[in-house]
Amino acid sequence: MKKLINSPADVVAEALQGLVAANPHLALNADHAVVYRADGPTPGKVGVICGGGSGHEPAHAGFVGLGMLDAAACGEVFTSPVPDQVVEATKRADGGAGVVHIVKNYTGDVMNFEMAAEISAAESGVEIETVLVDDDVAVQDSLWTAGRRGVGLTVLVEKIIGAAAQEGLPLADVAAAGRAVVAQGRSMGLALTPVTTPSAGKPMFELGENEIEFGVGIHGEPGRERRAHASAAELAKALALPIIEDLPFVAGDSVIALVNGMGATPLIELCLMNHELGKILAEHGITAARTLIGNYMTSLDMAGASLTLLRADAQQLAWWDAPVLTAGLRWGV
Amino acid sequence: MKKLINSPADVVAEALQGLVAANPHLALNADHAVVYRADGPTPGKVGVICGGGSGHEPAHAGFVGLGMLDAAACGEVFTSPVPDQVVEATKRADGGAGVVHIVKNYTGDVMNFEMAAEISAAESGVEIETVLVDDDVAVQDSLWTAGRRGVGLTVLVEKIIGAAAQEGLPLADVAAAGRAVVAQGRSMGLALTPVTTPSAGKPMFELGENEIEFGVGIHGEPGRERRAHASAAELAKALALPIIEDLPFVAGDSVIALVNGMGATPLIELCLMNHELGKILAEHGITAARTLIGNYMTSLDMAGASLTLLRADAQQLAWWDAPVLTAGLRWGV
């Protein structure tokens, strides 16, 4: 294993310090591995937090900042944050108008966020709404989940309800906006190479020279099938069609598209995948009103890609376009 | 070789189409593989272009847009653009106030940009200034260069003189601003894994399980030495000290730092490297006034990182902070 790290035990703590040092809009509670807005919480604004295991950077600490998250609870690599971390993130986000917990659907995350919500409510009386993200159409249940996994759509949920909260919407409306995104968004991914966590030190699974893991999760967990590697055109179709058919997306739909790298995929390949996606959408009469290409919801050093489509209305597009100042996503400010 | 591509011959053309489709501010001359501002050229503004072999994404097409480049000439992977491409990029950037060519110091690039400058001047009378970037302190000459290679600093040159041009400075001043950046900036990189080009289909060099290529170039070309892999703390020091000693950077300096990934390095490792860099700079009394972390000047699927430091004055910081709207770098707009 060749990684740019010191000791596996210190990876998350040291990376968060490096992130915060580069971003003056961020602050760090090192004891809890919670990254929060240096100027927060914003009085009267609904707080928005997310969290989960580390290893998915820039998610989620890289999405803390104006117009997106107020705080992120960063677990160890591929390990849910413990309730105390989520309680701390909730506190940092609490401007007196309630806090939304964005939770990716993994059993550990769901349980720990639920416990944290109870503790936070009991301790400070903060009102909490949870938005559960379960956009992965690859499998119904998985090793780590009951129900579908939460993957790339989480980035869109964070951006869109971050903007809604920044605009001043009340708690119930911000949460409803999040659930509306979850209802209209779907994703699927594939891996070209396995992922190696710092603590394991060796690949979490093996892939043959010509094999891909199709429908892979963001922890390298198995997907629909092992299949032979194929052209970008075929793979884009194999990812996009199940997504389109699942919602289903239909002719006339306007979508926000995320062409996401898993961490070790060069941008040139993601751009090429977007070219293929564009052809498929055109064939279905679907318009990509906005497209984001890059590594946003990753799995450490895994090579691969995922596609996310969100059927978006004018309000969602306006929230997508609203100013955002985070390490991972920034425009308008 | 597992890549998300169709045929090696079509990678650049298809990736550029995918890039432009996702970015309404961009337009593409597909025949010449030139990406340019859809709203350009801007009358009366000095044009700024760059170019080079593809495989370094987001450089350079991903840096075309308001406040940065007017056009980029995209060669085949790791292959200089031919003069005709650079002539076309120059034409797309020419708003009547002259054009700056930003050229990374590789023999092929230098020769082809020089020929293109002569052709452009002869054909249209456009005045051209060239800014040669040669920031890599790893080696004096290399397989591909006479003199030092141009690497990560190119991104900072593009941003800073893009802002100067946007502000309305005349040609000579924009070029001088570029040369000032080159004079005050230094870089060095390392590779943890080799790079595989689509056409070769196999790694360009071999690295042992515990070996790194220290001082590597952005085409995977050899650097100072093969050495044993080490901790992030040791590697950050091994990269930063030669950079600091070369200029030299001294106590009291204020710098713009780029912690750059080579394409397949996860963000969590780059953030950790920035944490180590921060400690080294502090020991030397150097302040990182701005820090950018991410994959900006890459080498396809190579894992590794490079550090770039630019001693920056108040004017350069202001240009760095000025609005920019590109696929790869965006803020303030």
Ranges of chain A where pLDDT stays below 50 over 5 or more residues in a row are none
Q: Specify the CATH architecture of the domain at 11-184 in chain A.
A: 3-Layer(aba) Sandwich
Order of strands side by side in the largest beta sheet of chain A? Answer: 1-2-4-3-5-6
Give the C-level CATH assignment of the domain at 11-184 in chain A.
Answer: Alpha Beta
Number of strands of chain A: 14
Percent of residues in beta strands of chain A: 15-25%
SS class of chain A: alpha/beta
Radius of gyration of chain A: 19 Å
What oligomeric state do the depicted chains represent?
homodimer
> What's the CATH H-level homologous superfamily of the domain at 11-184 in chain A?
Dihydroxyacetone kinase, domain 1
- Report how far apart the termini of chain A are: 39 Å
State mean pLDDT of chain A (0 to 100 scale): 97
**Count of DSSP helices of chain A?**
8
Largest sheet of chain A: 6 strands, mixed
Helix content of chain A: 25-40%
* Rough outline of chain A: globular
Query: Biggest interface, which chains?
Result: A-B, 66 and 66 residues
Walk me through what this model shows.
The structure is a homodimer of 333-residue chains. Helices cover 33% and strands 23% of the residues of chain A. Chain A is α/β, with parallel strands linked by helices. Chain A has a domain at 11-184: Dihydroxyacetone kinase, domain 1 (Rossmann fold, 3-Layer(aba) Sandwich), CATH 3.40.50.10440. A six-stranded mixed beta sheet of chain A has the order 1-2-4-3-5-6, with helices on both faces. In chain A, β10, α7 and β11 (287-294) form a beta-alpha-beta unit. In chain A, α2 packs across α3, α4 runs antiparallel to α5 (171-184) and α4 (153-166) packs across α8. The longest helix of chain A has 18 residues, at 107-124. Chain A starts with 10 loop residues before the first helix and ends with a strand.
